[in-house]
Amino acid sequence: MKNQRLLFVILFIVFCVCAQMIYAQEGSFVRGDYSTVRIKEFPVAVQCWTFHKFSFFETLEKVHDLGVHYLQPYRGQKLSSATGDVAFGPDMTDRQVKMVKDKLMEYDISLVSYGVVNFDNDEASMRKVFDFAKKMGIRTIVTEPQYDDWSLIDKMAEEYRINVAIHNHPTPSKYARPETVLMRLKGRGDRLGVCADTGHWMRTGIDPVEALVALEGRIRDVHLKDLDQFGVKEAVDVPFGSGKANVHDILAELTLQDYQGYISIEHENPDELDNPSPSIRKGLDYIDSITYYKGYEQILRANDGLYNKHGWNHYGPGYFELDQKTGILTGQGGMGLFWYSAKKYKDFVLELDYRCDKDVTNSGVFIRVPDMPVNNSYINHSFEIQIGDSGEGIHGTGSVYDAEAPKMKAFKPTGEWNHYKISFTGDRITVELNDRNIVDWRAQPRGKIRDFSPEGYIGLQNHDSRALIQFRNIYIKEL
Questions:
Q1: What is the SS3 assignment for 313?
Q2: 3-class SS at 411?
Q3: Which one, of 168, 169, 280, 145, lies nearest residue 219 by Cα?
Q4: Rounded CA gap, 137 and 472, in Å?
Q5: Cα 466 to Cα 232, 357, 363, 472, distances in angstroms
Q6: Which residues, 6+ apart, have CB-to-CB distance to 25 below 8 Å?
Q7: What is the pTM of this model?
Q8: Spatial separation of the C-alpha atoms in residues 154 and 150, rounded to whole Å
Q9: In which residue ranges of the chain is CATH 3.20.20.150 found?
Q10: CATH fold label, 302-478
């Protein structure tokens, strides 16, 4: 038995090292230095245990005052002083469920997850919890099962299309260590994953960032905490950014994984049970200060862990192939246009990463395409921010193609990811490539451009198959 455990530990370490090496080769980023990561904006929820000294309805008021719109309730919190011993959970009557829903609507709060709630390993016990979650519109159930056979949980998650996240209390809890949960998840469906409690990992002596790296692809919920001590069970919660958790790197790692779930705040300081809100506000301010993509919309995103092309269409020959696991688009054939048809944009900031297969790769980012493309005339009525490292001047990378040349060459060596930040406000186009300002131009008809529209679609060009182009991490913010 000891030899088996030792072998598992060795294999787990090898797995983590290999994952980091693969990522370094794929994205020219080596985990360990997160300073350059552009942190995305995560939707924030509050775990009701933060306010367990208060009723559920009182918690709603406090969460609303914090400016938070999402909630993770737990089973057993008293509803209100007016409802006696009635507690939040599956035993509520239909009338009480309606009371809860009416209060949620009043405070503009949605339930997104539920836990930590446990159930027996039998269908009746599980259905009671899953039926309740479905009734309340809950997307994720957080639990910590004491049995090893998860086949029934797996079946229920698929049947109800509700995620199940395995929570980690500190040692001696059964799932205190990430490798234990990984072993149990092997061969299970994608709806099963983990609820990553950063504070409890710290109490066990586990670096939260390293745990997140190991659990990539299986994170379904996050209990975000920052503690005043590491490796100490008696450590207490402090505002984000002021403790030992390294919240910046935690959110940076979740950004790299493009985690699509909620960040649930669970603040557990015994000296602040009467009023944890000031510490939570400080923590939210810290998160805001390190978030790069504030107010942006991710327009190529994942649902249920898989990326999709919802909202996008393609005109012309060729196509873009989407890796549903990584969210990387790869252009094939052409010349065509992959355009975001869900919305026209007037003034905006568009940011994305691109990578060239060869130095002769030819592509571009089209902005303000005025109408649905039905022929190639769109190239005469919209602007193309060029990608073409072998070109020069108005035909080189960073140029407004055929109209305005970049001030300098700022692209990285072939094969590395580049970052574009393209702004269009009124008639002014600015282009930053890898954080260097290379274009600041008052747009006007010039070259192939006959005129331009005050609003239009966003498009990505696939030019040919001899030198491929790739895109990822596409964000846009309306101004």
A1: strand
A2: coil
A3: 168
A4: 31
A5: 57, 9, 12, 20
A6: none
A7: 0.90
A8: 6
A9: 28-294
A10: Jelly Rolls (2.60.120)
Residue type for position 470? Q
Query: Strand, coil or helix: what is 120?
Result: coil
Return per-residue pLDDT of the chain as tens, 479 residues. 445 454 444 444 444 444 443 333 333 344 678 999 999 999 999 999 999 999 999 999 999 999 999 999 999 999 999 999 999 999 999 999 999 999 999 999 999 999 999 999 999 999 999 999 999 999 999 999 999 999 999 999 999 999 999 999 999 999 999 999 999 999 999 999 999 999 999 999 999 999 999 999 999 999 999 999 999 999 999 999 999 999 999 999 999 999 999 999 999 999 999 999 999 999 999 999 999 999 999 999 998 789 999 999 999 999 999 999 999 999 999 999 999 999 999 999 999 999 999 999 999 999 999 999 999 999 999 999 999 999 999 999 999 999 999 999 999 999 999 999 999 999 999 999 999 999 999 999 999 999 999 999 999 999 999 999 999 999 999 99
Residue in this structure with the two tokens 């069970």, named with its chain if needed: 233
Fold category of 28-294 in CATH: TIM Barrel (3.20.20)
State the CB neighbour count (10 A cutoff) for residue 354: 24
Centre a 10 Å sphere on the Cβ of residue 148 and count the other Cβ atoms it contains. Answer: 9
CA distance 322 to 306: 10
